[in-house]
């Protein structure tokens, strides 16, 4: 069963193309994380928030990544991280064209 990790936090920027340029190496490194399947990057310049929706192969790999990522964010001065892990109902997700591959 796949698991979804939802993460968001306050961030003053960068956003948009500047964010893409600044975090390209980070994005590439996430691909190498154990159990990682995909990520949708989220951002809201209006509310100074960023984060992402991740898919992991197991709950354990999602928890392991969250622990590491929370520590990494703390190194950037981000101490308030909102995060939740959910099991994915693959049958319903498939009906609604969601991708968990």
TrEMBL record:
Q: Where is the signal peptide?
A: none
Report any Pfam family annotated for this entry.
ydhR
InterPro entries for the chain: Dimeric_a/b-barrel, YdhR
Q: Which NCBIfam families match?
A: PRK11118.1 (NF008333)
Q: What is this protein called?
A: Monooxygenase
Organism per entry: Sporosarcina psychrophila (Bacillus psychrophilus)
């Amino acid at each position: 069963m796949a698991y979804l990790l939802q993460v968001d936090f306050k961030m003053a920027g960068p956003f948009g193309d500047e964010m893409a340029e600044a975090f390209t190496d980070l994005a590439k490194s996430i691909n190498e994380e154990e159990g990682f399947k995909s990520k949708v990057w989220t951002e809201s310049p209006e509310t100074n928030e960023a984060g992402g929706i991740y898919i992991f192969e197991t709950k354990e790999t999602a928890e392991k990544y969250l622990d590491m990522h929370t520590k990494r964010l703390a190194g950037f001065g981000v101490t308030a991280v909102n995060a939740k892990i959910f099991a994915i109902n693959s049958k319903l997700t498939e009906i609604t064209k969601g991708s968990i591959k």
